[in-house]
Amino acid sequence: MMVRENSCPEEFRKRDVKVGSQIVLSAWHLHRHERLWDNPDGFDTARWGTDNGKTCMRDAYIPFSAGSRVCPGAGFATIEGVLVLSMILKNYRVSLTERPEPEPVAHLTVRAKNGIWLKISPRHQTS
Q1: Cα 126 from Cα 122, distance rounded (Å)
Q2: Close Cβ partners of 66 (under 8 Å, ≥ 6 residues apart)
Q3: Quick one: which of 14, 33, 36, 104 has the fewest CB in 10 Å?
Q4: CA 54, CA 46: separation in Å to the nearest integer?
Q5: SS3 call for 12
Q6: What's the CA gap between 61 and 43, in Å, rounded?
Q7: pLDDT tens string 3-34
Q8: Do 92 and 124 meet the contact criterion of CB atoms below 8 Å apart?
């Protein structure tokens, strides 16, 4: 969640919001809002190539905040995540276990309710 203080009067959901009011923004809820996203709770990596996904990526996807308060490490974290994942997948095969699929819950950050249980086995390298 992100807290912001508005600098000009606004009307939000038919309510006046005075200058200096604290507004809490929940990326968790914004990223799963069914009026914005097609299939908001589904895991669909192809969504970013759709018209809806492209629009939402610009207007409704703020994993690192946005504007003047954007996380200064956002670019690094995005690149680092892809790099670390590619290094893991180059050397290891990752598969689901018999345990239930992860159930996301929102705290200060998003986590899996009972953890994420995976089986990791080495890939056999050929020279």
Answers
A1: 12
A2: none
A3: 14
A4: 11
A5: strand
A6: 15
A7: 889 999 999 889 999 999 999 888 888 998 99
A8: no
